[in-house]
Amino acid sequence: MAQPRNFSFASAIAGALALCLLLIIAAAAVVYGGLFPVAASSEDGAAVRSLLIEAREHSVERSAAGLTAPSFTAEDVRLGGSHFKGMCQACHGGPGAEPEEFAAGMNPRPPNLAKAAGDLTVAQVFWIAKNGIRMTGMPDFGKTDEDEELWKVAAFVKQLQKVTAADYAALPNAHEHEEADEEAGHHHDHH
Ligand code: HEC
Questions:
Q1: What distance in angstroms lies between residue 182's CA and the mean position of ligand 1's atoms?
Q2: pLDDT tens digits for range 129-143
Q3: Same domain, 17 and 67
Q4: Distance from the CA of 57 to the center of ligand 1, in angstroms?
Q5: Residue ranges making up the domain that contains 87
Q6: Which part of the chain is the Cytochrome c domain (predicted)?
């Protein structure tokens, strides 16, 4: 009886390999045939969307697990707010401030952080700001900005829910003078 059992085991393996090959061919046909939808205007299905969200949440949790937030003074948080205005508001908006129009055409849409950051720790917000989220349009500010500044921005993001539109409007934009300088043709390194 050993032989037929061996035979069926071998044919099961062969079947599995054939299936793998078929899947690889199908994937190649989708990619090289130009069938993969890259348009930002095309929506992900509910299953794909929730898979991507799970992947992001667990990756951020794992990556930020070893980080310890410094302590912040009220002045640190205020400074973080004026950087937020210049670095984050364009996409995410702020208290009483709409995002720029282009943000409405992004997929995924940059969320309102007063709500979306509610479940995140300061360290997780810092990690996201420093490293970005690939394939979403969320930039990594670690390339251009110091950790010290990004921690302050993260501390401000965690306070966003409590910031009134009036207080937010009163914050100076920490990046405005740089933009004005650049428009005037004075090139210099950020920070
Ligand atoms: C060019 C647009 C853009 C800018 C500028 C930007 N973001 Fe984002 N951000 C995004 C997008 C798009 C997402 C959504 C990513 C996703 O759905 O996975 C996102 C997601 C996030 C998240 C995760 C929210 C969640 O639901 O878990 C945080 C936190 C965040 N951004 C913080 C910041 C901070 C802080 C700044 C400024 C330092 C900033 N972002 C600047 C586009 C931007």
A1: 25
A2: 999 999 999 999 999
A3: no
A4: 13
A5: 48-183
A6: 75-161
